[in-house]
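Open question from group meeting: does this chain pack into something compact, or does most of it stay loose? Before anyone orders reagents, we agreed to write out a predicted structure and look at it together. Recording both the input and the output here so the notebook holds the full record.
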Amino acid sequence: MKRSLRAHGRTEGEAQHPASGRGYAHVCPSCGQGMDLYDLRDGDQAYWCVPCARGHRAGDPPPGALRPLPEAS
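Structure tokens returned:
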């Protein structure tokens, strides 16, 4: 199932992802640890959590996979 990262066509109560990944860290929705970025054979990229042995494509993050980075001062 593909989900658009854009907010258009979104229904009330549905998780909203930012239009850009800048300023966000990809974390495992199960354990909350940071995920490693890998290049796939089809030219896409994916994030993988080693302890959970689970992952997701970079362009299709599940709810809870993006955590805002702390603000730099």
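Observations to bring back to the group:
The longest strand covers residues 45-49.
The radius of gyration is 13 Å.
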